[in-house]
Amino acid sequence: MDLFEKIKANRGPIGMHAKESHGYFTFPKLEGDVKPRMGFRGKERLNWSLNNYLGLANHPEVRKADADAAAQYGFALPMGARMMSGNSDAHEQLEAELSAFVNKQETILCNFGYQAIVSAIDCLVGRHDVIVYDAESHACILDGVRLHMGKRYVFKHNDVEDCEKQLERATKLAEAQGGCILVITEGVFGMSGRQGKLKEIIELKKKFNFRLFVDDAHGVGTMGATGGGTGQEQGCQDGIDIYFGTFAKSFALIGGFISSESDIVEYLRYNMRSQIFAKSLPIALVKGALKRIELMRNHPEYRENLWKITNALQDGLKKAGFEIGLTNSPVTPVLMNGSIPEATNLIVDLRENYNIFCSMVVYPVVPKGVIILRLIPTAVHTMEDVNYTIDCFSKIVGKLKSGHYMSEKIAAH
Ligand SMILES: Cc1ncc(COP(=O)(O)O)c(C=O)c1O
User: Fold this and answer.
1) Are residues 193 and 70 in the same domain?
2) Which residues form ligand 1's pocket by a CB distance below 6 Å?
3) 210-248 confidence digits (pLDDT tens)
4) Which of 121, 209, 390, 413 has its CA 20 to 30 A from that of 115?
5) pLDDT tens across 127-173, in order?
6) Which amino acid residue places its CA nearest to atom 10 of ligand 1?
7) 139 and 219 in one domain?
8) Which atom of ligand 1 sits closest to the CA of residue 140?
9) What is the total count of domains within the chain?
């Protein structure tokens, strides 16, 4: 069979809907600056779909720092990978500041968060080592695990008992073949908003010999007394052996970092293929990240405001009778019941008639019949935004329950 023919016959679980969804449900084009009110198809909408947690994306000092750095350095500098010709004082300064921010000895900057995780997993374990990981891990963790040539055991999502069971199996195997164990989980799971059970997993170190790798993409900057992440929030940052943060969310930038003991970070610097064989982050971005971390350090009120909005949104939704699962982070999933056609009609109604833009999650990401509207509060949303949204959600869920979205195809595009 011809490869292209095969691909044309099977576009993948999301791609198969591309014709109807492209430009509206998928690949929508948001217009204007990154803030709670952005354009969509020429009209202003209240936006709850961006991980701009601390509101830094459009902060005047951030915009100025980015513009100044771009004017001074351009985006080419430095050319090459860090190891060969792409290092700079700015990169090293940012690494030092990030280490202090997440309370680890040392940090390596990475050009993309996703690649960083895939490549770090690949680099840390060998064929005799065993990986134990959470079943609902992000795609980048799953891809990293796929690269692993040794054995892996998956534990039920956030289930510490099952994690222990898998650690027992992993320990037997690792001992038999002279390998080590790496446990991987997340600080905050991006779909459900649940924090990973880091403290409980770290407790298991008393019984088992393993190292813990935590993807804290959603936790860095948002969780903990100073934004140091979910380990800080749970009082167990020291028990996280390898800590990952991305710049793609609360930092409102691009890139990522891994922090750990100095020896381990040095090992990563000299062995992580995605960083050795790829261009380093432009200095302009690094300078932008330095400005962001300065603002995070000096303005705890951004995080406090994020939590004020988060708590108002989550409490208000619950009071209005909504099911928001087990979130204990800003990520706010609103669960409803309905078919995929109902979900698409509902989203169109929400966008076109209530001017609210949020992401929708349906089967196959969640079970059939479940619709999740995922809201990401930020420090720059207002209480009016919260109250308006809860009010509109009450209206649309009333329509959903009455069968309104079943009966007609709401056309908007
Ligand atoms: C949990 C998690 N890990 C890793 C990543 C990848 O990070 P990046 O966008 O920096 O590549 C994401 C998404 O951005 C994420 O949500």
Assistant:
1) yes
2) 112-114, 117, 138, 140, 186, 190, 215, 217, 246, 248, 256
3) 999 999 999 999 999 999 999 999 999 999 999 999 999
4) 209
5) 999 999 999 999 999 999 999 999 999 999 999 999 999 999 999 99
6) 113
7) yes
8) 4
9) 2
- Indicate which residue's Cα is closest to atom 8 of ligand 1: 113
Q: Which domain holds residue 183?
A: 61-298
CA pair distance 16, 14, nearest whole angstrom: 5
Mutation probe of ligand 1 site: the residue of 50, 134, 140, 359 with most atoms within 8 A of C-beta? 140
Residue listed under structure tokens 């000299």: 270
Are 313 and 199 in a shared domain? Answer: no
* C-alpha closest to that of 374 among 364, 354, 387, 359: 359
One-letter amino acid for residue 355 of the chain: N
Q: Give ∠ CA 219-260-82 in degrees, rounded to 5.
A: 100
**Are 71 and 175 within one domain?**
yes
pLDDT at 25: 92
The pair of three-digit structure tokens given for residue 139, joined into one six-digit string: 């795609």
pTM > 0.90: yes
